[in-house]
Amino acid sequence: MHTVVVEPTGTRAEDVLAVARGGARTELSAAAITALTGAREVIDALAAKPEPVYGVSTGFGALATRHIGPGLRAVLQRNIVRSHAAGMGPRVEREVVRALMFLRLKTVCSGHTGVRPEVAQAMADVLNAGITPIVHEYGSLGCSGDLAPLSHCALTLMGEGEAEGPDGTVRPAAELLAEHGITPVELREKEGLALLNGTDGMLGMLLMAIDDLETLYKSADITAALSLEALLGTEKVLAPELHAIRPHPGQGASAANMLAVLTGSGLTGHHIGDAPRVQDAYSVRCAPQVAGAGRDTLAHARLVAARELASAVDNPVVLGGGRVESNGNFHGAPVGYVLDFLAIAAADLASIAERRTDRLLDKNRSHGLPAFLADDPGVDSGLMIAQYTQAALVSEMKRLAVPASVDSIPSSALQEDHVSMGWSAARKLRTTVANLTRVLAVELYAATRAIELRKGLTPAPATRAVLAAVRPAGVEGPGPDRYLAPDLGAAEEFVRTGRLVAAVETVTGPLA
């Protein structure tokens, strides 16, 4: 199995995904252990002094004014984990929790947190054993870290609460640790706080959303090209010289992808009747502009994610020369903004895809296709209600595009008086990404059926590759009405797993 080595200098997005989604093992590098040891020596030295140091010998948040003596410091660290493990609501997905745990381990190993090497090793051991703490939907305000979610993870390290074993069964954490030979940790000065105080949950979800959206933006270029083809539109609007004079990188990439899909098509530019069309509708003609703007948004999100992956988010932090300083780096605004930005872009991409689908189904605008792509319109309803489903998904995405990061509710007796709501932004983006997959699946279903109804016209080679792959996958072609939900589910799976992109790339080569 692939092993990810944790270094003090940060990590890569692909390493996070390998651990979160691929079950990769984690291993601490020698440099990480050295960094952990050095930072711990600083904390131990400060703990021995009479002067209070936040997180080491004081309470937390609004309770930071109380000095905690040596006899109560282990209790202090244990208590912060127990009291902050206050999540409610549905369980968070396993991949999110694994990303959360790995990213906190990454920061712990930076040498800026003061956590002992044995605690970091226990974190790696829990990940490697496939033990997943039970984390709940609600409990993070995206400031002072993803507090409740990270606390539930720390609780498992202490052998308390419940966790999911590698077999998917939820059991007491103490039992799972014992089965895998992992000794529960006994937290010392600063360690409880260091395990809770990061933006790891929202960053993990951002990285997974970026990974999913990279496939979905290519998929959207493909479905847009198929719709253009099915509507007998013109590919001339995709000419590189047109996009060079408005040089947004994403726009040029989307146009190039669509043009690659349409190369060799016998449907584009074909006219029904005597009156040639001068221009296609906006939802067809402006597809590269809309998808391209989303691609540029995605590029900005990657930049923010890369900076976060190189960060050590904790408070206080251990700096060079034995300094320990309070700071505000735990504030989730940088991540929260791009999470909301991606939700806005994805909602608009879904909106334009739905408009193309509706055009395919309307006999007054589809240039010769039967109403609702039905076999016998009137007797058959065709894809009428598939578009209803698509519209419902888009409507929800528009609601989810309302930014979470503009909200703030003061907490901790007004000590924490401005928060990012980045966790909430991440949670709604996950729903948005899933809905976008479904919206594109409906467009794919409608466009492929419409193309097959264009008898006597030869689709592009890339389109033929899609048809050859999607039909055996359970997405059936034209015909009388049938139970539609299984077809739509198969189309969703075809898009989600990247098989749509893979089918096209057998003809076009790698898409941008």
UniProtKB/TrEMBL annotation:
Lineage: Bacteria, Bacillati, Actinomycetota, Actinomycetes, Kitasatosporales
Family to which the UniProt record says this protein belongs: Belongs to the PAL/histidase family.
InterPro entries membership: Aromatic_Lyase (IPR001106), Fumarase/histidase_N (IPR024083), HutH (IPR005921), L-Aspartase-like (IPR008948), Phe/His_NH3-lyase_AS (IPR022313)
Catalytic activity reported: L-histidine = trans-urocanate + NH4(+)
Organism from which the protein derives: Streptomyces sulfonofaciens
UniProt cross-link 5-imidazolinone (Ala-Gly), position: C143-G145
HAMAP family, sorted: His_ammonia_lyase
Modified residues (2,3-didehydroalanine (Ser)): S144
Name this protein carries in UniProt: Histidine ammonia-lyase
Pfam families: Lyase_aromatic
GO molecular function, one term: histidine ammonia-lyase activity
Location in the cell: Cytoplasm
GO cellular component, one term: cytoplasm
GO terms classed as biological process: cinnamic acid biosynthetic process; L-histidine catabolic process; protein homotetramerization
EC number, UniProt record: 4.3.1.3
Gene3D superfamilies in UniProt: Fumarase/aspartase (Central domain) (1.20.200.10), Fumarase/aspartase (N-terminal domain) (1.10.275.10)
Record-linked PROSITE patterns: PAL_HISTIDASE
Post-translational modification: Contains an active site 4-methylidene-imidazol-5-one (MIO), which is formed autocatalytically by cyclization and dehydration of residues Cys-Ser-Gly.
Keywords: Cytoplasm, Histidine metabolism, Lyase
Pathway noted in the entry: Amino-acid degradation; L-histidine degradation into L-glutamate; N-formimidoyl-L-glutamate from L-histidine: step 1/3
